[in-house]
Amino acid sequence: MRRYLGIKGFHLPWSRRDDTQNEYTFVDYFLKYFLFLCNLTFTILGLVVLGLGMWGLISKESFAQEQIGSIGTDPMLILVSLGFVLTLLCLSGCVGALRENCSLLKLFSAAVLMLITAQVLAAILAYSLQDQVGGYLRSGMLSAMVRYQDDLDLRFIVDEIQSNLQCCGAENYLDWEVNIYYNCSSPGVLACGVPATCCVDPLENGTVWNSQCGVGAQQLDEFTAQSVIFLGGCLGGISRWIEQHEGLIGTVAVVVLGVQILTVFISTRLLESIQWHKAYM
Fold first, then answer.
1. What is the mean pLDDT of residues 138-158?
2. What's the predicted TM-score (pTM) here?
3. 3-state SS, residue 172
């Protein structure tokens, strides 16, 4: 019986309970600071994303009275929302782990669990509606092309897609008719043309960017146009890119989901340990 006997504040060195407590203490400290450092890293990342989004809105004067009505469709708002949610979520986990705050850890665990559920449901929904995804992509691409000259963010996105995938328009180069500046009825110099990122070789002499290389391209027949611009649309290019990188996309998705599940496990284990220590220590 003396084997498990001890004085308040002192445990006998051969006590089995004391050895267990020491083991749990080491594991708990490891989980605590591991969770803290991980959340601190993602909190900083969230602040960077939030800062970039706010910088984009401010630099474009999106908060000006004449433009405030269209701020809801500004792509920079996605960065602001993503950065804010990421910062708030990871900050709760960061402070909860460091201060051993059960309420914040519960909030963090519940939020990550909801995020995991939403991602799984979104994947299932996307798989079940894969035949309609192409229609949504086409609608989004055409909408971006309509606002190409008026929104710098959409112009950047469309240019990056067309340059990297070597494509032009949604389904073909004639889709640029939807833009009022490239429409053949337009009185401007861009009428019946396409952006320079549609051009096969937009550089003159290999050094100077020729922004007028796509002028009048819509008036050319396909045989003549193929030596000047890319004829294929970007929807087909996006589909081919996904097919070529589906293994990498799947791996990244599994890793991200696994990290989130591991985070929930660690936070739950740490929460149980904190509650146990508060109850028995």
1. 88
2. 0.71
3. strand
Give CA–CA dist 164/154, Å, rounded. 15
Sequence spans of domains, the chain: 26-61+73-172+232-280
Six-digit token string for 280: 């028995």
Look at residue 153 in the predicted model and tell me its pLDDT: 80
Task: Let me know how many helices (H) and strands (E) the chain has, helices first.
Answer: 8, 2
CA angle 225, 230, 234 (to 5 degrees): 140
* Bridge partners for 62 per DSSP: none
- CB neighbour burial string for 24-38, b if at least 16 within 10 angstroms, e if fewer: eeeebeebbeebbeb
* Cβ-contact 76, 82 below 8 angstroms: no
State residue 74 phi and psi, 5-degree precision.
-75, 125
Q: What is the pLDDT of residues 253-271, one digit of tens each?
A: 899 899 899 999 999 988 8
CA distances from 178 to 75, 139, 191, 226, 228 (A): 21, 12, 11, 21, 21
CA-based angle 89:86:32, to the nearest 5?
Answer: 45
φ/ψ of 190, rounded to 5, equals -85, -5
Say how far residue 125 (Cα) sits from the centre of its chain.
18
CA neighbor of 214 nearest in space, from 162, 150, 160: 162
Paired strand residues for 172: 232
Angle, alpha carbons 241-148-52 (nearest 5°): 75
User: 174, 192 in Cβ contact below 8 A?
Assistant: no
Q: How far apart are CA 28 and CA 266, in angstroms?
A: 10
Hey, is 186 helix, strand or coil?
A: coil
Token output for 220: 């050319």
